[in-house]
Write a structure and sequence with these properties.
The protein has helices spanning 55-60, 75-102, 133-143, 154-161, 185-190, 197-200, 215-224, and strands spanning 8-13, 18-23, 35-39, 44-52, 65-72, 107-113, 119-125, 146-151, 231-234, 237-245, 250-255, 260-264, 268-274, 280-284. The protein is of the alpha+beta class and 286 residues long. The longest helix is centred in the first third of the chain and has 28 residues, at 75-102.
C-alpha cells in the first residue's frame, strides 16, 4: 500500500523574511505561528509556520526555497539565537573596519547569523558591483565561519531595518510583503494623492508600496467612467465631464449654462465621442 505523501508547510525565515516550502517529518503536523527549526539551502535556521503548502499557496510563491522542517523550536534554540544575536554587533564592526581598510565602495547595512552558527550573512548597499573576495577571506579567517555577502537595494534596506510607517503600523516590507511591487507617480496621480514627495515616499525614500494596493481598482473605475472632456447625456441634462470621482463611480459635469452637477455612472445615458472621420456619434455607455 502506498504511503501518504509527507506534509509540506509554508515557512517564513531569515532576516529578509524569505518564504519556502518545507517537508515535515512523517506523522508530525504543525499549526500556524509555530516557531520551528528548518534546514534551508543556507543551513539551519529558525522560522515561523504560516500554513500548510498546497497547489494554491505554491501559485503565489515565486521559486520558493525547498527544505526540511526539522522540529518545533525549543528553549535551547531560542537561547542560542539570543547568544548569536549578541555577537552581530562585533561582526558588524569587524566587517566595517575591513571595508574601510580595503577602500571598498560599499555601505554595510545589517548582519544575520544563522542558528547553527555555520554562516554569517552581511547585507550591504553599493552603486556598482563590488569585488569583495578578499574581504570574505579576511572575515572568514577572523570570525572562523562561512561568510556570505549580499548586495541589496534601498527597499531591502528598509525591509531589514524599518519599524513603523507614517500610518502608525509596521512597514509593509517589514511584515507581509514578499516582493517589492513597482510603484509609479501615475498611481499617485490617479488616486489623487498629494504629489508632495515627502508625503508619498516611504522609509526607503521611494514611493510607498501601499499606492500599489488599490491601483487596479482605480484603473478599472477610470475605464468605466467617461474621460475628462467628453460630452455626456445624462438624466439631469447634457454637458462636459470636468472630473472623475473614481471610488464613488461618479463624474462632475458642466452644462452649457456653466452649471455643475455630480452624476453617477448609472445615470449617464450616452457618451458623445468622435469617430475617425471627425463626425460625432453617440454610444450607449451601458
Amino acid at each position: 500500500m502506498d504511503q501518504p505523501a509527507a506534509r509540506q508547510y509554508v515557512v517564513r525565515y531569515g532576516a529578509m523574511r524569505n518564504l519556502g516550502e518545507f517537508v515535515a517529518p512523517d506523522g508530525v503536523t504543525f499549526s500556524r505561528d509555530t516557531s520551528v527549526v528548518v534546514r534551508t539551502d543556507r543551513g539551519v535556521e529558525l522560522g515561523e509556520v504560516l500554513c500548510e503548502a498546497t497547489e494554491r499557496t505554491h501559485s503565489f510563491l515565486k521559486e520558493p526555497i525547498q527544505g526540511r522542517l526539522l522540529r518545533v523550536a525549543n528553549d535551547d534554540d531560542r537561547s542560542q539565537r539570543v547568544s548569536l544575536e549578541e555577537t552581530t554587533g562585533h561582526e558588524f564592526e569587524t566587517c566595517r573596519r575591513h571595508i574601510a581598510a580595503m577602500g571598498l565602495s560599499m555601505n554595510l547595512v545589517d548582519v544575520e547569523h544563522l542558528l547553527g552558527g555555520e554562516r554569517v550573512v552581511f547585507y550591504f548597499l553599493a552603486d556598482n558591483r563590488v569585488d569583495f573576495r578578499e574581504l570574505v577571506k579576511t572575515l572568514a579567517k577572523e570570525l572562523h565561519t562561512r561568510i556570505e555577502m549580499r548586495q541589496i537595494g534601498v527597499r531591502d534596506e528598509t525591509k531589514l531595518l524599518a519599524d513603523y510607517g507614517d500610518c502608525g503600523l509596521p512597514t509593509c516590507c517589514n511584515t507581509h510583503l514578499t516582493a517589492m511591487p513597482p510603484v509609479s507617480m501615475r498611481m499617485a496621480k490617479l488616486q489623487k494623492a498629494t504629489l508632495d514627495p515627502s508625503k508619498i515616499s516611504g522609509r526607503c525614500g521611494r514611493l510607498k508600496c501601499c499606492l500599489r494596493y488599490e491601483s487596479d481598482h482605480y484603473e478599472e473605475s477610470a475605464r468605466e467612467l467617461p474621460q475628462v472632456g467628453a460630452r455626456v447625456v445624462t438624466r439631469h441634462g447634457t454637458g462636459r465631464v470636468l472630473s472623475q470621482i473614481l471610488l464613488a463611480r461618479r463624474v462632475i459635469v458642466e452644462d452649457d449654462e456653466s452649471r455643475r452637477f455630480a452624476v453617477d455612472v448609472e445615470e449617464i445615458v450616452t457618451v458623445v465621442t468622435k469617430n475617425g472621420n471627425g463626425k460625432t456619434e453617440r454610444e450607449n455607455s451601458n
